[in-house]
Every structure is written in structure tokens, then in C-alpha cells.
Write a structure and sequence with these properties.
Rossmann fold, 7-stranded parallel sheet, 5-stranded parallel sheet, 21% strand, 2 domains, alpha/beta
């Protein structure tokens, strides 16, 4: 039985989330709180397995409560986020602080799509509860002692064999992508396209945050963009990004099609387009996330001579998407988070 604590200053939201979760026999809402301070007190008293946490609340806001939880007794926390620019920025900060995922507030409103909403919310709670907070406890642990400092990777001279990196990522992804991109050198000799499962209101602020901490240039993809080495493009939420190879350039195309894709943006759609546009020049990178989005795209890419990396189980918030390509024997390397930036750079020359 997964014990859940719901923290939100809205009585409607507390009731809606509790009602949906309690419909599953494997989940029990053991308490609700009206603000961060009350929520923190109930975490200490009730020891829930998972906490859903609103951000804007009186007395103590969700970010402050989250910091206390992560310092005192780390556990999976799902942030309840408004679909606004301010909500996006606060949510991205919460993910940096250790929250495992977020629930857009629209998911909790009564609608004709309530069955789908319930399934998604329940699936997220069950998935993050099963991970036992390995990523948080590892992040909070003391730095590893090493007898000899690690040498920085030095890229071989000459042009890389691969010059397009396609990243597919979902649950737990923003801090992982930020760590990777912020570790890449300014003269990174390839372009990067990122399909992160995220609402439309979030991808713009996410791209700006990445740009502010990275040596390479990062922006949200838009019509008219052209791939350039040392530049990364984040697919806008609710749309797909595909590549179009021209005679002397590769265009970034933002499209609504396929409209029936389970995820928008879709890692499968992106990586399949990379396979078609640049073939063996492509490197697919599948990071933490639920489901198997990216697996079919990587299969297409491998068929054209490209390579693929999978994030390791031990460093994923959710080992779903990487597991899919590992199980299908499509991953050329399985890489820990701390080594991913270096591995991406090295694989451009393999």
C-alpha cells in the first residue's frame, strides 16, 4: 500500500487529488494539509511514501517545504504546478531541489477526460514510489573520494563522425538535461535537439534556464531554425520537432503531425526524423522517463548506422525509456549520469 500525503491550499484540489488516488486499491491518501508548514508537520508525523505538493501556499510555500523534506527525510514529491510562466519557473526550481515530477493543475480538474487523468496521476504515484528515491539519496550523499582527480576528456582532432545529438527524456528529466548541457564545452562540435515531455508553457522557460547555465547556446525550437554546432534546441510542448536535410543545411521543422502521437513532443518522432535526415551522423540519447518513447526512433537510427546511449538504471528517476532500448539491445553504451556529457562527446567520434 502506497501512503500519500496531499498538500494544497485549495480545498477543491485536495479533494480532487485525494478522490482520484483513493480509487486505486494500492494507494491510500493518509492525510491532507492546507499549507507547507502543516504539510511538513504531517510528513514528520505520518511518514508518507509520496507527497503531492502545491507551490503557492500561505505560511510556508511548497519550495520551502520541499527543501525541508529533502534535507530531513528525502522521499518522492510530486509538485502541483500551474501552467503559467511563473509556475514553470517555480516547478523547474523544485525539480532541481529534488522533486521527482510535477502534476499540471489541469490534471486535477473535473473534466470529461477524468478517467485518463486518474490513470496518469495513479501511474506517476506508483512509479515514483517504486524508485525508493535513489536519485535523491545519491545527490544528498557526501562527494565520492578519489585518489586521483578525473582527467577531462579531450576530443580527438578533426571532424566528428556524428554531428547531430537527439535526446529523448521524460520524468525526472530537467535536472538531468541541465547537468549534461552545462557540462559540455563551448566548442561542442555537434547540434542537439531535445524532446522533453513537458507542457507548452514549460518548454520556453526550460530552454532559457538551460541557456543560462550552459556554455553552448540553448533555445526553444521555432520555424526557421537551422542546426548549428554548439547549439541546442528544445522541442516546444504540444508540438513535434523533425529535421529536414537540405543541400547544405539541416532545417528544424516544428509540426503538429503526427497528431495522434501519445507524446507531443515525441522522442520517437524526433529520432526517426534524425535517422531519415542524417543517418549515421546521428547519436540518440535516451534518458530517465516512464514508458518506452524513443525505442522505435532509436531502432530506425541504428538501422541507418547511428549510435545510441542509455542512462543507467541507478541514476534514473524512472528507468522506463532507457530500459526499453537496453532490453531491445539497441544501446551501444549504458552510462551513469555523471559520465553522460563525456560519453556523448566521445561517441561523436565513434
Amino acid at each position: 500500500m502506497i501512503k500519500v500525503l496531499v498538500v494544497d491550499d485549495s480545498a477543491f484540489m485536495r479533494k480532487a487529488i485525494s478522490t482520484m488516488l483513493d480509487k486505486d486499491a494500492g494507494i491510500k491518501v493518509i492525510g491532507t494539509a492546507r499549507d507547507g508548514q502543516e504539510g511538513l508537520d504531517m510528513v514528520r508525523k505520518l511518514n508518507p511514501d509520496v507527497v503531492t505538493m502545491d507551490i503557492e501556499m500561505p505560511k510556508m510555500d511548497g519550495l520551502t517545504a520541499l527543501r525541508h523534506i529533502m534535507m530531513e527525510s528525502p522521499r518522492p514529491v510530486l509538485m502541483v504546478s500551474s501552467l503559467t510562466t511563473e509556475g514553470a519557473e517555480s516547478t523547474l526550481k523544485a525539480l532541481e531541489l529534488g522533486a521527482v515530477d510535477f502534476i499540471p493543475k489541469q490534471l486535477s480538474k473535473v473534466s470529461l477526460d477524468i478517467v485518463k487523468i486518474e490513470k496518469d496521476l495513479i501511474a506517476r504515484v506508483k512509479t515514483v514510489a517504486a524508485r525508493k528515491m535513489r536519485h535523491v539519496t545519491a545527490r544528498a550523499a557526501a562527494p565520492r573520494k578519489s585518489a586521483t582527480p578525473r582527467k577531462a576528456f579531450v576530443a580527438p582532432s578533426g571532424r566528428p563522425i556524428r554531428d547531430v545529438v537527439a535526446i529523448g527524456v521524460s520524468t525526472g528529466g530537467p535536472p538531468v538535461v541541465q547537468k549534461i548541457l552545462s557540462s559540455l564545452p563551448a566548442d561542442f562540435p555537434a547540434s542537439i535537439i531535445i524532446a522533453q515531455h513537458m507542457p507548452a508553457a514549460f518548454t520556453g522557460p526550460f530552454a532559457k534556464r538551460l541557456d543560462s547555465v550552459s556554455k553552448i547556446s540553448v533555445k526553444e525550437a521555432e520555424p526557421g531554425d537551422i542546426l548549428k554546432a554548439g547549439h541546442a534546441f528544445v522541442a516546444p510542448g504540444g508540438k513535434h520537432v523533425v529535421l529536414d536535410q537540405k543541400v547544405s543545411r539541416v532545417d528544424v521543422v516544428v509540426t503538429e503531425e503526427p497528431a495522434d502521437a501519445l507524446y507531443k513532443p515525441s522522442a520517437n518522432v524526433l529520432i526517426s526524423s534524425v535517422a531519415k535526415a542524417v543517418g549515421k551522423r546521428g547519436l540518440g540519447v535516451i534518458l530517465t522517463g516512464m514508458g518506452n518513447d524513443g525505442c522505435e526512433g532509436v531502432r530506425d537510427l541504428k538501422g541507418k548506422g547511428g549510435r545510441a546511449l542509455a542512462q543507467s538504471d541507478s541514476t534514473c528517476v524512472v528507468y522506463g525509456m532507457p530500459k526499453a532500448i537496453v532490453d531491445d539491445k539497441l544501446a551501444d553504451e549504458i552510462v551513469d549520469l555523471d559520465d553522460l556529457a563525456e560519453s556523448i562527446l566521445a561517441n561523436l567520434y565513434k
